[in-house]
Amino acid sequence: MLAEQDILTALRDCFDPEVKLNLVDLGLIYKVETEPDPDSTPAWPRQRVKVTMTLTTPQCPASGLIFEQVHNRLAGIQEISKVEVDLVWEPKWTPHRISAAGRQQLGI
């Protein structure tokens, strides 16, 4: 079964096209939830995944692209049967959410 860290590792392949930093290190991924999917077809153990995330601003022009990246990246994992991406605005994203690795990459 996939753990939260497995999902976060996969999401590091998804980037904000304006900032050029992956969504995890940018601090946009707030929560990852997984649960078994007993109704999955085929019937091997698969999971439903829910990602709670935000954007840097409500007017983010790349929002559609970002959601598509997240959904497609996770939907491409064989062990995942269903992906739900939940957009939230609280807590509000701030640059303080950028990880140490992200700060180093951005030079800040």
Shape descriptor: elongated
Number of helices: 4
In the predicted model, the low-confidence regions spanning at least 5 consecutive residues are none
State the fourth-level CATH superfamily.
Fe-S cluster assembly (FSCA)
How many domains?
Answer: 1
How many E-type strands?
Answer: 5
Percentage of helical residues? 25-40%
Sheet with the most strands, sense and barrel status:
3 strands, mixed
Estimated radius of gyration: 14 Å
Q: In CATH terms, what is the architecture?
A: 2-Layer Sandwich
* Binned strand content: 25-35%
Give the spatial strand order of the biggest sheet.
3-4-5
CATH class: Alpha Beta
Mean pLDDT: 93
According to CATH, the fold-level topology is GMP Synthetase, Chain A, domain 3
> What order do the helices and strands follow?
HEEHEEHEH
- Return the structural class: alpha+beta
How far apart are the first and last residues' alpha carbons, in Å? 37 Å
Could you please describe the fold and organization of this structure?
By secondary structure, this protein is α+β, with helices and mostly antiparallel strands. It has a single domain (4-94), classed as Fe-S cluster assembly (FSCA) (GMP Synthetase, Chain A, domain 3, 2-Layer Sandwich). The protein is 30% helix and 25% strand. The protein is built from 4 helices and 5 strands. It has helices at 4-11, 23-26, 63-75, 100-106, and strands at 15-16, 21-22, 29-36, 47-53, 80-87. Strands 3-4-5 form a 3-stranded mixed beta sheet. A two-stranded antiparallel sheet has the order 1-2. Strand 1 (15-16) and strand 2 (21-22) form a beta hairpin. The longest helix has 13 residues, at 63-75. It is elongated and about 45 Å long. The mean pLDDT is 93.
